[in-house]
Design brief:
By secondary structure, the chain is of the alpha+beta class. The protein has two domains: 151 residues, Jelly Rolls, CATH 2.60.120; 99 residues, Arc Repressor Mutant, subunit A. A hairpin with a 6-residue loop joins β4 and β5.
Length: 271
């Protein structure tokens, strides 16, 4: 995990340079969450689509909005590149489009932002003029520089303060009615504003936040405790959400992906 420059912290929730040897071909799950996923592979295109096979394509860049289904990332045994988790404000500030416009989409960067369309090619060409292969750190620096320039062009794109407070409340698991009262909106008005910002209704956004929270602590305590701590009614409720949002049970994810993601020798894109 790389440090996010201060100017980008409202817009970039995570910044990861990954170079991993998986040993054998396989499929990695890209799980839903409350951030948009922006991936710039290095060396070879990213073979990605939705888990049901829709939209599968080899891409030199991938931007996915908030979604309620897993993606499938096919690999030949190794993966290398840069992955960012963008906040909903980051979509406007860095890509120049509202997050709501990208909801449920899996797109190439040039389909989203003409201003950033050349970034994958610039990363590919970096260092080759000198006959050397630039490392991930140099590519990471280029991505940060380009996004900082995009921010300067697009200006501050933070959501209305009330919407930001509402999203924070939904993320921590507060009832939708309580969040609406806290920010001074009717429940209906809150729903309209949250959907305009994220592309999702408040309940759907809250569901992703709860799932994301469970994913962060899975493997560190028993599933029944995870369910209670993250706001699920019970362990069965947790299992149903994982089946729908991840395409597998929590136990399957722990068995197949958790050991790799926890390996201190690797830095991996987690989807």
């Amino acid at each position: 995990m790389a440090a996010v420059p201060r100017a980008l912290t409202p817009y970039v929730a995570s910044l990861v340079a990954y170079d991993v040897d998986l040993g054998a071909p396989g499929v990695h799950r890209g799980l839903p969450g409350t951030t948009l996923t922006f991936v710039l592979p290095v060396g070879e295109p990213l073979d990605v689509g939705w888990a049901d096979g829709r939209g599968r394509e080899r891409r030199w860049s991938t931007v996915s909005g908030l979604h309620a289904a897993p993606a499938a990332i096919h690999h030949h045994g190794a993966q290398r590149g840069i992955q960012l988790g963008l906040t909903t404000a980051g979509a406007r500030a860095l890509l120049g489009v509202p997050a709501a416009a990208l909801s449920g989409e899996l797109l190439r960067l040039e389909e989203v932002s003409t201003q950033l369309a050349e970034l994958p090619e610039r990363l590919h060409d970096l260092g080759r003029a000198a006959g050397i292969e630039a490392g991930l750190d140099a590519r990471l620096a280029m991505v940060v520089a380009v996004l900082t320039q995009a921010l300067a062009r697009n200006g501050d794109a933070s959501a209305r303060a009330e919407v930001g407070h509402a999203l924070a409340g939904l993320t921590r698991g507060a009832r939708v009615a309580d969040v609406a009262e806290e920010v001074g909106y009717s429940r209906r008005r809150l729903g309209t504003l949250v959907k305009q910002e994220t592309g999702l209704a408040p309940k759907a956004y809250q569901r992703l936040a709860r799932f994301e929270a469970s994913r962060a602590v899975l493997g560190s305590r028993p599933l029944a405790e995870v369910a209670v701590a993250c706001g699920y009614a019970d362990q069965a409720h947790l299992a149903r959400d994982w089946s729908e949002l991840a395409g597998c049970s929590p136990s399957t994810w722990l068995h197949e992906e958790f050991p790799f993601l926890q390996d201190p020798e690797t830095r991996a894109a987690s989807g």
